[in-house]
Amino acid sequence: MNVPLRRRRLAVAVCAALVVTFALVLRLRPFSEFVTLAFDDLGEGVAAGIAAVPCLLRAGRSTGRWRLSWALLGAALLSWCVGEFIWSYYELVSSQETPFPSLADAGFLLFPLFGLGGLLVRPSSAFVGRARTRILLDGVMVVASLFIISWTTSLGTVYHAGAQNTFGLVVSLAYPGSDVVLITVAVLVASRSRLNAGALLLIGGLVSMSVADSAFAYLVAAGTYGTGAFTDVAWVAAFLAIGVSALFPEADEAADSGRVEGAVSLSLPYFVLFSGTVASVVTVIRNIDTPATITVEAVAIVGLLLRQLLVVLDNRRLTASVMAQKDELTFRAFHDPLTGLANRALFHDRVAHALELHHRDMRPVSVIFVDLDDFKSVNDAFGHDAGDLVLSAVAERLRAVVRTGDTIARLGGDEFAVLVEDDGDPALVAVRLLDALSAPVPVGAYDVPVRASIGSTTLDPAQQRTDIQQLLKQADLAMYAAKRGGKGTAVRYTSELRADADDDLEQRIALSEDVRVGRIGTTFEPIVNARTGELYAMEALARWEYRGTPIAPAHFIPLAERGGFLADLDLLVARRALQVATAPELATKGMFVSTNVALTRMADGDLPRRLGELVSEFGVAARRLVLEVSEQDLLDDTRTVATVLALRGLGVGLAIDDFGVGYSNLSRLERIQPDVLKLDRSFVAPLDDPGAPRTLVRRVIQLAHDLGAVVVGEGVETQRQCDTLAELGCDAVQGFLFSMAEEEAAEVA
Fold it and tell me: Pairing state of beta strands 653-659 and 490-492?
């Protein structure tokens, strides 16, 4: 029921005006006694009837327990309305004295019954879960306290006033008794539930109704009730408050609703208990029914003690839960979620502590870095879930070979580290780690090989003070030395490694500058026809000198890759290749020039655009530029396929280098449609032996031809190798046998 805020405010103002008008008329009595009595009686009945309308309309538009709640509240107001009109009939129409009990009492007493049901069925956190035990104990405290208050004020007076018969006495006591129960539930709901303005109006109306009802019973029993008493105004105000509350959204529907918490809401039951205790003291002082009130007060106090015991137990349970969560959060903050090993933060903390012990007690400290080799290919080939399985298996193997007192950590990705303390031998640990990783890891139907490069460093007792960053850097340098040394090995840090690292940095800076300004040499290795020996094509190869000394490509190519400028080096050599391709000697024969492109560039979506600009700049046919990529690199990285296909769209050629040594995915090869397959030198070298088997080489060449590619044999060093390849169907060859032709190629350039 969505009533605009302005209409709700107007309804509250109108109801307030009606209550004030009703009170003024009863107070000032501008009419005759009979008219005032009729105004009083009929005004109360009309107010109850009017208030029932929005409650019943709200019930019709609600669902579930909300519908039942509003229906019961509407029924409570209607029953009181009917009872009031019956009462009015006796007072205004019938000439006889109003009987007691009468049908009017039935209507009046149905109000607290229906009102209680309307409160109890409303969705509330007060009556669910563990709150039910607390609410029960709060109810014992509140109902006992209210009983004492009621007994001291109205209930005791009604009881002692007596009645003409037992039934009349029961009916008389039912009024304050039912009011005690209704106020108890209202207090409990107010202290536990989420409240908004509408809920406060509802609870306030029910409490006001109950208080007025008990006051009326007291006044009647004392013989002091008269027309226009304050109870009559309180009834009208209570009815209208309940009716207006139906115009407000429920607490969980209101956007601006909030929960009444803190001292006000939580102290309500205790405030009632305090009031009951004061009333009990008054009865003791006045010596009125002292045993009964003390007994009831004892019940309230027992309820309080049990309630506080429950609070203590709940606090204990909550404290234990918080501590468990704290431990869990602490573990998560300092451990890797996948493997359960220490993470980088905890590892650094442990290393810092070990260094403190070293500085204080001269204890040795060793750090070992473990980096899995070619782990990226596992993710690319089998998926990241399989990669996670491999990492978890590696973690278990590391745990199995490392001492309990040492710290194993996963630093991130496929990087692990071990802190070795208390005279542990890092060299022995490194050997154990390599042995533990020697067996493949089963992933589904596959056995995935796992290798690692390991670097270690040790701070001996006699060594001078050092910091954590320096120690970790030494282990890192040793690990990268292991990778450069062929992977799958362990290297221990020495001062020479630091010198090599410094040289590496200096060379990387020099190489970067030379690439930027184009100070890179290029040589062209000839590719000749296997049958005729004529020049067939050329391969552009980068050459670089550092301080006048030639540096091997196997050294400076990784330098460029680690420095992040290998892409620029590749494009520089591609530009040189296109320059050669424009030479008339090559252009007239349609020869191609090939150049190597690293995997990092093959996965770069910007590569086709930049190469396309180069081809357009030199005005040569795109097919005369052939890009070489190794079979292993291309087939291990699925991300390169889209880039390769885009390059094919430009018309440039594609050559797969070192063909035959990788695990070729034939369906992907067919999709890529390479122009050239370069037969790996491992197939060529054995051909010097006349008795060497040739079946495999022939089949590899045939496979390449079936894919529509030209076959180039690499690493040809003897004429026998060249002749044998020609006999087996190889189209072209290259190698040291034709090194003299390299000078000829340079002249063409």
Answer: unpaired
Nearest C-alpha neighbor of 242 from the set 206, 272, 287, 194: 206
Residues whose CB is less than 8 angstroms from the CB of residue 114 and which lie 6 or more positions away in sequence, other chains included: 72, 73, 75, 76, 79
- The SS3 assignment for 627 reads strand
Q: What is the pLDDT of residues 485-500, one digit of tens each?
A: 778 889 898 877 765 5
CA distance 543 to 553: 7
- Is residue 201 within 8 A of residue 172, CB to CB? The reply is no
| Residues across the chain | 749
DSSP element (H, E) containing 380: helix 375-382
Please answer whether residues 238 and 73 qualify as being in contact, where contact means their C-beta atoms are separated by less than 8 angstroms: no
Query: Strand, helix or coil at 739?
Result: coil
CA-to-CA distance for 527 and 520, rounded, in angstroms? 22
Which tokens go with 386?
Answer: 């399989």
Q: Is 602 within 8 Å of 634 (Cβ atoms)? A: yes
Spell out the alpha helix ranges (H) of 223-267: 230-245, 263-266
CA atoms of 537 and 742, how far apart (whole Å): 12
Pairing mode, if any, of strands 625-630 and 732-733?
unpaired
133-160 pLDDT, tens per residue?
666 666 666 666 666 666 666 666 666 6
Stated pTM of the model: 0.46
CA 706, 709, 711 angle in degrees (round to 5)?
105
